[in-house]
Records
---
Amino acid sequence: MISRRDTSETVEFRAEENVLVYLGDNDAIEQPETFQFCPLGVQLYTCSAVAECELLECKFTIPDAEGNNEEVQCTGLVVQCSEPLNGDTLYRVWVKFLDLPTETVQRIQQVTQNQRFICPFCENF
């Protein structure tokens, strides 16, 4: 879940068979294959624009060392929001994680290493 600091609107993403994003009370948005999640941040798609340089409260769940789900909370910064292209209706939004603990960064790296979510930069490390 990613929520704007100054509103009650939230973005929540769930990785099941398909990744779904919820923005506030809007219907779920199924993410295209270009959705990315890695230690640096998340690239997702929404039906509405998100202001660049906006700080977000980010919450998501990842497995801990014992395989139990652990909720992680951090601050994210919207670094880019692209307008829909070629008749698409979704905005592409990049969020940079700002304050993840080193241990969490390492766990995200391990979890996403074998997933299709990892970004090309992290994939090379």
---
Amino acid sequence: MGEEPQLPPIPAIGDVLDRKKSFVERKHSILKCGACQADYTRAFKPGDFVFKDLSDEECEKCHSRKLAVIEIYSEWINPKKEKKK
């Protein structure tokens, strides 16, 4: 009979958790202008939620105040690799 395939070792759960400690979470909000339909991203602010109308901010292109949050996302960034860029 043939030999069983050699699989790489499974990492310990502690190794995975330690890796996550070195990463930093960055949250972003995607805004859409109701007047010119332009989309742009800005840093997440407390109180942002999807479909929230923002009357206190103005569009970067047309300067109207018809902005709405259409999406919120987060990404995990390794600060050590970001400094090298």
---
Amino acid sequence: MDAIEFVTRYPGYISQLEAVVKPAHLPAIEKLRAFDPHDIVKQEHYFNSEAEALGLIFRLFLRQISR
């Protein structure tokens, strides 16, 4: 998966995460939703799998809730 595909799928990844988190963590989801996915990955970035892309989203989420 290349960076363009990641950017395209980013809103869906956030929605998937939102569906499984506790309501108390919804503010962190909204912060992730506000991020521009172009700022998260560079154009030449490549993911070996969709799981790797989801892992990046999960790490971003964990950073948000640990603040």
